[in-house]
Amino acid sequence: MKNDKLKMFIGGGIIGLLAVILVKLGNPGNMGICVACFWRDTAGALGLHRADVVQYIRPEILGFVLGAFLVSFFNKDFRSRGGSSPILRFVMGIFMMIGALAFLGCPLRMILRLSNGDLNALVGLLGFICGILLGIVFLKKGYTLGRSTKQPKFAGFIMPLIALTLLIFLIVKPSFIFFSQEGPASKHAPIIISLIAGIITGIILQRTRICTAGAFRDIFLIKDSHYLWGVLGIFVVALIGNLTFGGTFKLGFAEQPVAHSMHLWNFLGMSLVGLTGILLGGCPIRQTVLSGEGDTDAAVTVLGLIVGAAICHNFGLAASPKGVPVNGQIAVIIGLAFCIIAAFTISSQKGE
User: Fold this and answer.
1) pTM greater than 0.85 (yes/no)
2) Which of 162, 200, 286, 303 could staple 282 via S-S, CB 3.0–4.6 A?
3) Is pLDDT of 351 > 70?
4) Name one Pfam family in it (predicted).
């Protein structure tokens, strides 16, 4: 048991260290790894939204998918499965992204922001836990999206093929792909380093199955801290890295990189992410990794994340360092209402 916890901590620690290195080599502050931000930037690069400061195919996110695919394929973990309420997963994926972009980051970035002194992330963490606790209530009442079933093997290769295609686009730079000249997406580590870091992260996450939502869910639901040790590894090593060679540690709420201090919406945005993470069976990075190992349900969720990013920037929902716009606030409330109603309805149907 102790060895398992140590392995989880070391796996998480490597991810935390890679995140610090990526920032040191050019990624935006506190954004060494952020699934929500990376899918948002990639959606912009494809022209799905025209916010010109967040358009760049992030090689790290492609590495997550490809790393998970490679290690699962060679370890015979790759299985094409799915068919579990795909339309609900797609819509919840959209709302998961809306919540993340209200907070300005996924749960993993929340941990990394906290490790660099951003106390706005502490507010987000409290909201994230509250969303998870709400999701657990529905799990105890019998909530489920149903079982996945075996799918045609080719279906499981779709997300890895998409990732490979996007990598080719990033390298070739065809005219129909957009690249930011300023703003967060113009800041990035060298492509090869980002890709390698992404692949390593994808491999670690596939083997350890670290999930931020799952870590807190298991603590509260079954009193199991196994996955939490991976999250602690990310935080502790990133904290040490930021304090030693990162050079960017700053404790406080004000003037944090790519963040805002509208506490209510940091809280509610991450509450939505926590709730959807439980209802979908995994946080954004867990869904991304699962999509690389043949899970088409997770792939549908990832497509929902991408569409959600496009919606956020096309309709003025996404937050900025100035705060969360009114449209974004309304969207978060709608997302919470939708997910609560859906979960309550599904839970009430148990036994029918």
Assistant:
1) yes
2) 286
3) no
4) Sulf_transp
